[in-house]
Amino acid sequence: MTFEQFAVARLPSLLRYAVVLTGDRDLAQDVVQEVLARAQVKWRRISGSDSPDAYVRRMVLNEYLSWRRSWAFRNVHAAGERLAELDAARGGVGDHANTVVEADALWNRLSLLGRKQRAVLVLRYYEQIDDETIADLLGCTPATVRSQASKALRTLRLEQQEEQEQRQRIHAEEWS
Predict the structure, then answer these.
(1) How far apart are CA 53 and CA 66, in angstroms?
(2) What is the enclosing helix (H) or strand (E) of 7?
(3) Tens digit of pLDDT for each residue in 127-136?
(4) 127 close to 119: Cβ distance less than 8 angstroms
(5) What pLDDT, on a 0 to 100 scale, did the predictor assign at position 135?
(6) For residue 73, what are the contacts with CB-CB under 8 A and spacing of at least 6?
(7) What is the rounded distance in angstroms from the CA atom of residue 26 to the CA atom of residue 28?
(8) Around Cβ 106, how many Cβ atoms within 10 Å?
């Protein structure tokens, strides 16, 4: 397979993956563009690997983790519409408004996580990769992956609990 054939075939998937990692369609496009530019130069070596797709996806992950522009890792924009589009592309059905609200709330909670914690959750739950493979991708031990996932999920649960308590307070104030 030529690089051009690979890029055409895998671009939509790479962009979806990068959007979930970064939370920003424009940044995801920048990350994927940078990775594909580097991959084209190294295509002979990449195409000879066991899985060129896995190789390039790892390049996307590494580019995301090493992104240095301050706006990229300080600002996470609401991505409810984008995540709803991803769900729809996977065959999800339901009330679009509820999907957008839920996705925005989830994305806002995800924005509280550090890049590595977010990467662990994306790799584990979106990409459905096992802890050993994630550890290999991130250059750490499986125990570190489990620890990062545990901390990230605890942070998400606490934030969700705080949001629910705040909604209950607002609701109680409205009725008093």
Answers:
(1) 20
(2) helix 3-22
(3) 889 999 999 9
(4) no
(5) 93
(6) 67, 115
(7) 5
(8) 16
The chain-wide mean pLDDT, for the chain, equals 82
**What are the structure tokens assigned to 19, written together?**
């959007």
Question: Please, are residues 58 and 51 in contact by the beta-carbon 8 Å criterion?
Answer: no
- The identity of residue 37, as a single letter, is A
Confidence of residue 77 (pLDDT cuts 50, 70, 90): very low
CA dihedral sign of residues 75, 16, 126, 148: negative
Alpha-carbon distance of 131 to 136, in angstroms, equals: 9
Nearest to 52 by CA among 95, 97, 3, 17: 3
Neighbours of 142 (CB within 10 A): 14
Claim: this prediction has a pTM higher than 0.90: no
E strand spans, the chain: none
At 160, which amino acid appears? Q
CA proximity to 18, closest of 58, 71, 47, 74:
58
Which amino acid is residue 165, in one-letter code? Answer: E
pLDDT bin (cut points 50, 70, 90) of residue 126 is confident
* pLDDT exceeds 50 at position 74: no
